[in-house]
Write a structure and sequence with these properties.
The chain is mainly α. The protein has one domain. Helix content is 62%, strand content 0%. Helix 3 packs across helix 7 and helix 11 crosses helix 13. The longest helix is centred in the N-terminal third of the chain and has 22 residues. It starts with a helix and ends in a 23-residue tail after the last helix.
């Protein structure tokens, strides 16, 4: 299959009608690895907000089962879209996610921001390091999928376009990014998980390369110092070289989609495997499928930007 054949098909489609098909092509055929990398960076951005990282820090989910927590986050999203977001399975996956979140008092604006990172993060990463930039149709598809997921989660005030998601994302970070020790603890645990995917001798350098592609406001909020300029330049060139090589390869055939692979579940998973153990001790009721937990307002986190940043090494 020609490298640009699928793109030409996408450009003739209407995202309002075909967003689920376009989304499947993005994550399974056009940018499977690059999309997942962008999602991983989006996870790290969440930790720049103290009240988000403090909640994650209190649950100790990353400390106890960090790889599972990472895999579950990716897989629940996959399960919501696998058979179609309007399918019974898609609604069941969303209800399962809502039940997990329902144990915590999470403000709506934090839900909005985390959702926005899953839209804006992959888009920016693909445009920066993918074998090509996303088309207009693909960009709006990410926003439409994000909006539909937000509707299924009961989030209010959802943006309607990618540009609106991007404004929400950037405005929230300008207001809410601040250093807190919990930011660093959760981020450090996540970095250890990501580093563990590489052979032991390469793990320290893999962590440094990841830090080298993060922007300075995020590094400051996480409590990490910027990597040297030479390493930032080398990391950027390395990712761009990989993109150039990928551009020379043929497109992925339709019969060989790249589906998620979870280290936690080498023999496969069911929806009931995903999430904390307490989330699947009883079946869903019809009421749970329709009713969402109250999202009470949470006082704004006071700034902690004056806390001194720590060295990564």
């Amino acid at each position: 299959m020609g490298r640009y054949n699928r793109l030409r098909r996408i450009q003739r489609m209407d995202p309002q009608q075909d967003f689920e098909q376009i989304y499947r092509w993005i994550i399974h055929y056009e940018f499977p690895r690059t999309y997942l990398q962008g999602t991983s960076i989006a996870f790290l951005r969440d930790y720049g907000v103290p009240r988000i990282s403090q909640l994650l820090d209190r649950t100790q989910e990353f400390e106890r089962a960090g790889q599972k927590r990472y895999d579950d986050t990716v897989l629940i999203t996959y399960e919501m879209v696998r058979e179609g977001m309007h399918s019974e399975h898609g609604r069941t996956a969303a209800a399962h996610l809502n039940r997990i979140h329902g144990r915590y008092r999470i403000p709506n604006e934090d839900f909005l921001y985390v959702l926005a990172t899953t839209v804006v993060g992959p888009k920016r990463w693909i445009d920066r390091f993918g074998w090509r930039r996303l088309s207009e149709q693909e960009t709006e598809t990410l926003a439409l999928v994000g909006r539909r997921m937000g509707e299924m989660m009961g989030i209010s005030g959802l943006p309607g376009t990618y540009a609106a998601f991007e404004r929400l994302h950037d405005d929230y970070e300008r207001e809410m990014f601040a250093y807190d020790p919990a930011n660093r603890r959760v981020a450090a645990t996540t970095l250890r998980i990501m580093a563990s995917w590489y052979p032991a001798p390469a793990r320290r350098m893999a962590t440094r390369v990841l830090l080298a592609v993060l922007d300075e406001p995020l590094l400051k909020a996480l409590g990490f110092r910027p990597e040297p300029r030479w390493l930032r330049a080398a990391a950027h060139r390395g990712f761009r070289a990989r993109a150039a090589l990928t551009r020379l390869l043929p497109g992925r055939p339709e019969r060989f989609p790249r589906k998620p692979k979870a280290r936690t579940y080498p023999f496969g998973w069911t929806l009931d495997d995903l999430g904390p153990h307490w989330a699947h001790t009883r079946p869903l009721t019809p009421i749970e499928d329709e009713t969402l937990p109250e999202r009470a307002p949470v006082p704004k986190q006071s700034s902690a930007s004056e806390v001194p940043h720590q060295e990564t090494r």
